[in-house]
Amino acid sequence: MQALVLERKGELAIRDIDLPRDVGPNDVRIAIHTVGVCGSDVHYYTHGAIGSFVVRDPMVLGHEAAGTVTEIGAEVKTLKVGDRVCMEPGVPNMASRASKLGIYNVDPDVRFWATPPIHGVLTAEVVHPAAFTYKLPDNVSFAEGAMIEPFAVGMQAASRAGIAPGDVAVVIGCGPIGIMTAIAALAGGCSRVIISDLSAPKLAIAGQYAGITSVNITEASLAETVADATDGWGADIVFEASGSPRAYQGIFDLLRPGGTLVLVGLPVEPVAFDIPAAIFKEAHIETVFRYANNFDRAVNLIASGKVDLKPLITDTYAFADSIAAFERAAKGLAEDVKLQIRLGD
Ligand code: ZN
């Protein structure tokens, strides 16, 4: 089967590769239609590793996917052939202690697409457990279906924040996850979200959404903007979605006493964390690793019309041009939010 294969750091190929094809009793076979290019896919391409996950053998990339069910296992009752679906890319061991606690995203044995040594889905079809495959309503497109995976991270962040209706939130970082966190925070009840970044084009895209205020930190002070918006009290919630160590300088100045800091962005360098500042405000600190139990609700929000992720899709490439899509994503262009690759019609 043809696939986009990361041969090794910095080397991509579209070529035939043997992938598992047997449909077990609780599995479905899915013809892949659309796959989003994720920062993690790009990082494996450019760096060959993320933390302790190192690409040692050729690996198919892609984990943000939507497609059509073409075959169902003997025990599958929830899906049928022809259903349009999106897929949750991490499959835990359902008998694990983490799964039994409902925190299957942190199951140490989770098998996650395009995380070594597990192949991703930039290929014609995949076999996946029905329990991690979600039907898309007719009014949700494949392109939107392939946005559910990154949106689920924003949903997880909003859930972890424990939003109360009317809360004011800050999101540091205006990449796809930052913007989707802001959108999820509004859907979760925030009255207002202030988002900051250095990239004017990305801030302009975020600022199109009602309820989101963009702050370009090359031109204005985020701390002053937050103080003005909250009469000096501070934001109820601060989401750190940049992963930049610099974002942590003065981060507790943004937060109200007793507020919640949610760590979403994954820093790749050490971070200086001001523990006294956190203690003096008795700040709550939450962390986000992927998501658990969010796909259904993410699909519902898009189907309801309350959330529109289409403005975040910057460009779409044909599968034959997927190497070009990755080369572009690796450049990190200021105006690019999400690139997608289409395999289906
Ligand atoms: Zn992703």
Question: How would you describe this protein?
Answer:
This protein is α/β, with parallel strands linked by helices. It has 2 domains: 2-147 and 309-342, Quinone Oxidoreductase, Chain A, domain 1 (Alpha-Beta Complex), CATH 3.90.180.10; 154-287, NAD(P)-binding Rossmann-like Domain (Rossmann fold). It contains 10 helices and 20 strands. Helix 5 (176-187) links the parallel strand 13 (168-172) and strand 14 (192-197). The radius of gyration is 20 Å and the shape is globular. The mean pLDDT is 96. Bound molecules: zinc ion. The site of zinc ion has 6 residues, from helix 4.
Beta strands, count: 20
Low-confidence parts, pLDDT < 50 over ≥5 residues? none
Count helical runs: 10
The CATH class assignment of the largest domain is: Alpha Beta
Tell me the CATH architecture of the largest domain. Answer: Alpha-Beta Complex
Give the helix proportion (percent range).
Answer: 10-25%
What structural class do helix, strand and pairing data support? alpha/beta
CATH topology of the largest domain: Quinone Oxidoreductase, Chain A, domain 1
N-to-C order of helices and strands: EEEHEEEEEEHEEEHHEHEHEHEEHEHEHE
The largest sheet is:
7 strands, mixed
Mean pLDDT: 96
Question: What would CATH call the homologous superfamily of the largest domain?
Answer: Medium-chain alcohol dehydrogenases, catalytic domain
**What overall form do the CA principal axes indicate?**
globular
Bound molecule kinds, no repeats: zinc ion
Q: From the alpha-carbon coordinates, what is the Rg to the nearest angstrom?
A: 20 Å
* Beta strand %: 25-35%
Our measurement of the CA-to-CA distance between the termini, rounded to an integer number of angstroms, reads 18 Å
Tally of structural domains: 2
